[in-house]
Amino acid sequence: MFARSAFRAAQPLRMHARRFATETGPSAAQQAAKPAAAAPKAAPAPPPAGGGGGSNVIAYVFGAAALGGGYYYYSTQAGAAPKQPAKPAFTGGDQGFLPLKLAEVIDVNHNTKRFRFELPEKDMVPGLPIASAVLTKYKGENDAKATLRPYTPINDENEPGYVELLVKQYPGGPMSTHIHNLQPGQTLDIKGPLPKYEWAENKHDHIGLIAGGTGITPMFQLARGIFQNANDKTKVTVVFGNVSKEDILLKKELEELENTYPQRFRAFYVLDKAPKEWQGNTGFITQELLKTVLPEPKSDNIKIFVCGPPGLMKAISGAKVSPKDQGELSGALQELGYSKDQVYKF
What we know:
single chain, 346 residues, alpha/beta, Elongation Factor Tu (Ef-tu), domain 3, Rossmann fold, 2 domains, 12 strands, 27% helix, CBR-like, EC 1.6.2.2, FNR_nucleotide-bd, transmembrane helix
């Protein structure tokens, strides 16, 4: 279904998008090679007011000594008690599942909700590395075995007290139906982290994130992590496909990133069923759109990430075989000249 072309962008938009896709900021090596600016010399202390009488000089000396003593006390006390890192709730290994209590449910649209679960201790943080997910478990009374489903949390990994999941309910989906039926005060078994793509600052100069539906959650986690790090200069381009305008998840958060980092973050939305007033792309994600907005395959140090329903994966990159097997690259990205090493499937 992704084969038919529906991208009809105006020429100025095409030129601007292509320019954004091909321009790259300074690499990590270039950033490190920049000489540090010399620190300005401290201005000499002003002389005491008045004509230099003995009493004024004494007052000035004692005042300076008091200020110096106060600064010394503060600095030594602060240095003696450095702030301890927050304790992570999810530690992996033999930790097992944590029964986390549901604290709040927020409706997003007709089939998607945000679920906020309390961590075991209020000052704990999720502590998930980027990029990673958590695993949920549920076993009904008549189920022969438990249902397991991974989800990528959407809240900041360093926010204390809770973990938040964005869950779309699918007809007949055992886990999504179970979570949607939970009431505040009930618990859900969650464990983690499930490591995905290991990120480090400036690992790539430019990345493209192609998502459909709730496949935006790992993309958002990755983008947020990049822009929270002042030392990371990676450029990010998002291509996000959905059925309708109401299905665009995390749009407010994506717009905030685009408004805050207009030179480094761009998002392109594609709707299958677009309203008349829609000014974005319509139909499905096409080769023509990807060729226009993504970093070119011949560019140095780029990476393309893909996550979405089976139809999108098949059309864009080919399916992932298993968590440890990315499978062969096919679809639009292969036809556009990207290599298997340049693509990661969540």
